[in-house]
Structure formats: structure tokens, C-alpha cells
Amino acid sequence: MKFTIDRNKFINHLNHVMRAISSKTTIPILTGIKLDLSQEGLILTGSNSDISIKSTMIKDNELQIQSEGSIVLPARFFSEIVKKLPEAIFTFEVKENLQTVIKSGSSEFLINGLDADNYPRLPQVSKDLQFELNGKTLRNLINQTNFAVSTQESRPILTGVHFVISNEQVKAVATDSHRLSQRILKIENGPDTILDFIIPGKSLTELSRILSDVDDNIQIQMSENQILFTIGHLSFYSRLLEGTYPETDRLLPDSSTTDITFNSSKIFSALERASLLTHESRNNVVRLVINPELHQVVLYGNSPEVGNVEEILNVETLVGESLEISFNPDYLKSALRAFKTDQITMKFTQPLRPFTVVPKENDGQFVQLITPVRTF
Predict the structure, then answer these.
(1) Where residue 224 falls among pLDDT bands split at 50, 70, 90?
(2) What pTM did the predictor assign?
(3) What is the CATH number of the domain that holds 110?
(4) Is 78's pLDDT higher than 90?
(5) Are residues 107 and 159 in the same domain?
(6) What domain range is 87 assigned to?
(7) Number of independent structural domains in the chain
(8) The 3-state secondary structure of the chain, one letter per residue
């Protein structure tokens, strides 16, 4: 196996594949990166059992192929070596006993490899169920919901984002049982049948990073327990979570007794100031005292060890009943980051009932729900 390649081009593909490789895997060979070389081109593969990424480089002037073959190399060492090579071009050659020689300029490395036949095969995903989705649309869906997934393995189903996709719209929901984020977007030419599946949040985090500069449509294929995203030269596989996602629609209140519209940046800054103290407290809780008669909302935060803070918040509009409610400020800050709008409306019902946060100009397509904290 031997080829010569442009180092920058190789690193671009290598960086994508490295996202799927973990040093904590229970399968030792998965700490390595697999290279498959044929007369058509070079394929790099990385996997951690949950996700697998395959990147294909077609033979061209920047990739010169001398002889075919396959090898698995220790990913971390190989990646660091390639990134520190002195010249723009390097030569890669597998010798006998799976020893691999990497040459660039006056630098030469010898690395011990593993037999590629022992590397697990990538999942087989049928083309019978496939559709396309705009890359920017998918990236927005992930960024607006994935932060609310649970990090607790006690309820594995909540560690993923629940997608329901029809021909005309896609709905994504995430909740950790303390907060919820739901986003609905209109699409064109979706699947002919309604698809219902759950993708692990960790998989979506890596997928979102890959999609950061992708605005074209991507192809999506599904099987019973796997989903495949094809993004140009890149194939991104993720397992799907098994089980039934909770019925979240019933959690969203139909009405409210108190509505407040805030400037997003101003309330975010106030929460940041309050968090300076609440993060030092074991509970990390702020309290809102709402007084419609005075057209006033006061934010309180305290830490028994440090002190307390009190701030009168600027409100755009305030209608409804008086209310006092406590909640985790980090949840509201995460919600505000996801909205990226100038104004948000918070809708309350009772002190111990979840409240919703929506953009001021809202058509029901984006809503977040936060559960209050009992402080008495």
C-alpha cells in the first residue's frame, strides 16, 4: 500500500474522521483510524460504536496512488504526526509486518499498524428509506434543541433528540425532565411516510460541527437502528436510541395568567450578574417577583456563603397577575442563546407550574419550557 498526497487536503478529511474516535472505547482497534486505498481513491474511517464517520478522497493530482491496500493506525499518534510534518506533500507506505513509513522532506516516521480485516464493518443502511434535508435547516434544529437533552444515563431515551418528519415539516424535541425545547420547521419534499426516531445528543453535537459550513441539501438514509447522513464526500453514521419518547405535547400549557416581554440581551445580562452569586450556592436558583400593578419585575439571587443580589428588570410589556417564581438561571440563559431574537415573552401560570419562553413574534413553531424550583 503506497500513496503520495497533499498534506492540507489530507488533514481536512482526517479532522472530520477524528470526531468519531474515542480513547475510552472498549474495543481497542477502534482507537485507530482505518485507511482503505484503491485505484479510485482513499477512504478514511473512524468509529466509536455510537457514531462512525467515513471520508472519501477521489484520486486526482493531489492524491497519487502507487499500490492498493488497507491498514489501521493509532489515531492520536498518526494525526499528530501528519499535522507536524515539515512539507506540503507526504508519502505513505505500508511495509511488511504492517509497519507504516511516513515521509515528508527530511522527516521519516515508522508506525506499527493493525490488520484492517479486524476492524468492525460499517453498519448497512438500506436506500429504501431516504430523503433530503437542507444542511442549514438541520444544523438549526440541532442547535435549538440539543442543549436540552439529558446527560443522565438513568433514562437513556432522554439523552437524545426526538425527531418527527413528514413531507411538509420536521419537529424536533429535547427534554431532560427539567426543561424542554421544541422546534418545528417547514420543509419541502420530505419523506412520503411519517418518520419517528431519536438520535443521541452526543452524535448530534459532532454532526452539528461538521454541518457548520454546509448549506446544501444532505441525503439521509434510515434503517431500524441506524441513520446515515451523506454530506458530500462524508458519510456520518449514528445509532438510533430504542424505545418510546415521552408524550411531550401535553406538557406545554394552553394558556397563561401572566405574560412578560423582555429585551433578550438585557435579561440575559441580568441573569449573568445574578449567576455570579447563585453559582456559589448549592441550589443555583434565582427568584422572580412579578408585580403588574407597579409594572415591575425584580430578580433576586443569593448565596449564603457570599451574599445576595437584587435587580429591577426592564420589561417591554407586562400583563396578568402577580407572581413569585424560582428557577435555575442557566436553563433560561440556554433558552435565550437558542432563540437569537431581540425580544422574548415568558408565559406563567402558577408558581410551581412550568413556564414557557417563546420569541415575541411567535407562531408556535419554537417554544421552550422550564420547570420552576420549590424553595419552601
Answers:
(1) confident
(2) 0.92
(3) 3.10.150.10
(4) yes
(5) no
(6) 2-118
(7) 3
(8) CEEEEEHHHHHHHHHHHHCCCCCCCCCHHHHEEEEEECCCEEEEEEECCCEEEEEEEECECCEEEEECEEEEEEHHHHHHHHHCCCCCEEEEEECHHHEEEEEECCEEEEEECECHHHCCCCCCCCCCCEEEEEHHHHHHHHHHHHHHCCCCCCCHHHHEEEEEECCCEEEEEEECCCEEEEEEEECCCCCCCCEEEEEEHHHHHHHHHHHHHCCCEEEEEECCCEEEEEECCEEEEEECCCCCCCCCHHHCCCCCCEEEEEEHHHHHHHHHHHHHHHCCCCCCCEEEEEEHHHCEEEEEEEECCCEEEEEEECCCEEEECCEEEEECHHHHHHHHHHHCCCEEEEEECCCCCCEEEEECCCCCCEEEEECCCCCC
